[in-house]
Specification:
It is built from 13 helices and 14 strands. With 359 residues, it is an alpha/beta fold.
Amino acid sequence: MKTYHVGVVGATGMVGQRFISLLENHPWFELTVVAASPRSAGKTYEQAVGNRWAMSTPIPEAVKKMVVLDASKVEEVAAKVDFIFCAVDMKKEEIRALEEAYAKAECPVVSNNSAHRFTTDVPMIIPEINDTHTDIIPAQRARLGTKRGFIAVKSNCSLQSYVPALHPLREEFGVEKALVCTYQAISGAGKTFESWPEMLDNVIPYIGGEEEKSEKEPQKIWGTIENGEIVPVSTPAITAQCLRVPCSDGHMAAVFVSFRKKPTIEQIKEKWASFAGAAQELQLPSAPKQFLHYFEEPDRPQTKLDRMLENGMAVSIGRLREDTQYDYKFVCLSHNTLRGAAGGGVLLAELLAAKGYLD
């Protein structure tokens, strides 16, 4: 695989920081540009981040002295890279315009933002689940009038634990409906306990926009490509409730599910154990060897113990049992800034590279 030159746009925020830490020593991607808002532009990365570096590992030495570029100077950034990761904190319409500007500058965009998730010709991909949605890219390029440029997005962090658990069961057993309660870490809001002391010893039963995303995004992920658009599925119907809990990292979901053809517990566990997707088949560098891990212990998965499973890129599942109102219930866990955000973005870029879309 050739080496691609990469930019991180929105480099000073928490997800941008995570992208930078993941790109250190990446076998395919070399970070050559960091870009952010005009107030950070012109400073070194170390100066621009200041005391806001939130990762457990230090700023990579090669990045400290990089001069931050102005993310709004699209042509200047695009000229220096093969593609960008985008993780900016702006209004949705501003993000849509910025990402389209990069795509039209023939610079592919791998986005962590939600702004384009429901643009009908923008693929929203979990590489193990709907890698074939890359097939929409030629239609998007035709609309944008580009040869190389396009936008691909990763889905919301809140559904990265339960959609992978439901996915292997859909085809054979028909998932009819699911009720999901998510318990989401504070890093999902770009916060640490130092910057958000109100979260200590507290649970907040509201995360703006999160429930709608949790209910609708899976239907696009499972959708089909028709006439240059991704058409969402109508089942399973999902209802979600999302709570912010006092954990640094890791989103947990309590899932209740009903099937058209009810499987046995053994059949479900076997589907989870044997499941692999394109990320495993292509042996992408960031892919977990085993995507779904089932724990037999009654008190697992636990956020603190299990969020870093397979470098934070695997999904942990446990407590599968029959339910009195749905067919089954279980609990799952994923790392929200690794699998759920920057790690999922890097894995998506690896998929796009392996399929030739970044050439």
